[in-house]
Amino acid sequence: MNQFFKNEKQHLLRFVRESKPLIIVTLFFIILTYGIKLAYLDYSIDTEAIITNFGGQMAAWRTIDRIGLVFSKKLFSQNFFNPFVANFLTYFFLFLTCFLLCYLIYRILGKYTNKIGLLSLTIIFLTHPIFAEQFNFILQSFEVSLAMFFIVLALLLTYFSIETKKILFALPAIILVSWAFLTYQSLLLFYIAGAIASVLLILHVQQNETSDFKLMDYCFIILKYLIVFVGSLILAKALIYLNSKLITTAGSAYLSQQILWGKLPLDDILDRITTQIKIAVLGKGLFYNYSFLLTILLTVPILISKIIKKVHFIYLEIFCLALLYLSPFLLTIFIGNAEAIRAQMPTVQFVIAFNFYYVLLHFKNNILQKILFIVSIIIAFQQSTTTANLLYSEHVKFNEDVTFANRINTQLDSLGINNPSDYSLLILGAHTPKSSALIPGESLSHSFFAWDIGTTYGTSIRTVGFMNTLGYPFKLPNENDAILGSTIREELSNFPSKNSIKIVDKTIFIKLSDD
User: Fold this and answer.
1) 35 against 208, higher pLDDT
2) 129 in helix, strand or coil?
3) Closest alpha carbon to 349 in 69, 43, 101, 21
4) Per-residue b or e along 409-442, where b marks 16 or more CB atoms closer than 10 Å to that residue's CB
């Protein structure tokens, strides 16, 4: 075992020495894409909650079984949230994830590694716009990024277990995958996609060498990945059960309520699933492009050529590719509906990025390789620009929200409200940002003053939390305030009209719109 670790150290050092262009390009695209998050300390919805009530946010995560996220937060944050530290660590671990992913491929393929392909894979993966939706939730972005790194590290350890035929490496892999799953549940799909990609790479090596591999050998390899997958689920469920016994928390329907099977007609559910798959594959909407479909189409002639040449285990390869293409949609199938866009990361972008690598790995013609590499650079720049624009739009929205909050408090000052901590605040209606620089996403660029419309307190909970982070310590409204607000809202005009604010006892009612 000592000799293995010595050899592995040499492999890693050699890869680092040979990867200077990869490191430079990765850092360039991370700064280009996400640099605005390092330059500014903006934050989105939910982050106000962890700033004003750290313990309350930990309890909320426990109710949806994200105890790995709670553990990471407790381990690294010292019960205090710092936006700069969160952002810096987020993109540091995104860099490490990309680097380790490339090292995983290098370790499996060895001399067959396509270095141009590693560049394509990295820049396609890290620039994808879906990361903007996920990493905009900076209260958890570092922990999610760390969990992504854990998944790739677990894939590497699983490969070591296969290579050395020692179960010892599978044990830490199980722990890491379980930790990642308990941080953000959809990351389990990343392990599935990564395991399938690893099997494809192992297949590629064996197809290019004089190999006596038999079907049972591949079954053994797949079994190792299944052991880690199932073992991590069992460990996660055991930890969830233990947590529920040690710390009594009320369960939440946040996850279970998203499952539509049995709640809607079968045809409706199937239509929702196929619609989501079409959107992602055909590149419809702000968060997708033609890269998924392009690389799928490019694999067709590769597979046909292999069938004609009767390459060993080509049908296993086709089966694995089909599973790989399906893996980003397993959660969609599980819940019977399109999940939140942020929950699709990083599986969608990994599969697309790996597709580029797979095609470049099989292109023997230098001209074709260069053309596809140029295409990958173009797509990466397009994705980087889209992602950066979304984050800039969020920055503009945040500044507008701060300005709007100050306007409200200036008007309250004129009414003699000099001590906000003495008052509850109930917001009626919503405020929509007006900047021409806004690019609305699923959660991106939506104002703190426009969330939760239709609930008992409307946008008041978000607003009060946001106001508290700005130094306006209003109290949360109660149920009686909400009832009174519904009866007096017709008496009020929309802000900033003088008649838009009403004070009853120690509750301030502000009407923003007729919504």
Assistant:
1) 35
2) coil
3) 101
4) bebbeeeebeebeebbbbbbbbbebeeeebbebe
Which H or E run includes 49? Answer: helix 47-52
Q: Could you give the percent of the chain with pLDDT greater than 90?
A: 80
Tell me the C-alpha to C-alpha distance, in Å, between residue 66 and each of 50, 69, 73, 330, 489: 15, 5, 11, 20, 39
Q: Which pLDDT does position 215 carry in this prediction? A: 85
Amino acid making up residue 406? N
Report yes or no: 444 and 394 within 8 Å, Cβ to Cβ: yes
Residue 248 has pLDDT above 70, yes or no: no
In 3D, which of 128, 180, 502 has the Cα closest to residue 351?
A: 128
Mean pLDDT of 160-187: 94
Q: How confident is the model at residue 250 (pLDDT cuts 50, 70, 90)?
A: low
Which tokens sit at 362?
């099989």
Cα 92 to Cα 97: distance, rounded to the nearest angstrom: 9
Alpha carbon distance 262, 270 (integer Å): 12
DSSP string, 450-511: GSSTTSTTTTHHHHHHHHHHTT--PBPP-HHHHHHHHHHGGGPPPTTSGGGEEEETTEEEEE
For residue range 403-443, what is the model confidence (pLDDT) as tens digits?
Answer: 999 999 999 999 988 899 999 999 999 998 888 899 998 99
How many CA atoms, within 13 angstroms, populate the side-chain half-sphere of residue 425?
Answer: 28
CA-closest candidate to residue 216, choices 313, 310, 306, 303: 313
Cβ atoms 411, 501 nearer than 8 A:
yes
Decide if pLDDT at 204 tops 60.
yes
Residue identified by tokens 């035929």 is 165
Please tell me whether the overall predicted TM-score, pTM, comes out greater than 0.85 for this model: yes
**Rounded Cα–Cα distance for residues 432 and 479 (Å):** 25
Given this model, what pLDDT does residue 255 score?
Answer: 64
Residue pair 511/489 in contact by the 8 Å Cβ criterion:
yes
Inter-residue contact 427 to 74 (CB < 8 Å) = no
Q: What tokens appear for 13 in the block? A: 């050092």
User: What is the rounded CA–CA span in Å between residue 253 and residue 292?
Assistant: 33
pLDDT for 301-313, tens place per residue? 999 999 999 998 9
The DSSP bridge partners found for residue 507 are 424, 504
Contact 236, 71 (CB under 8 A): no
What percent of the chain lies above the pLDDT cut of 70? 98
Pure H helices in 183-329: 188-207, 215-246, 266-282, 291-308, 314-326
Asked if residues 303 and 317 have their Cβ atoms less than 8 Å apart, the reply is yes
Q: What was the pLDDT predicted at 109?
A: 97
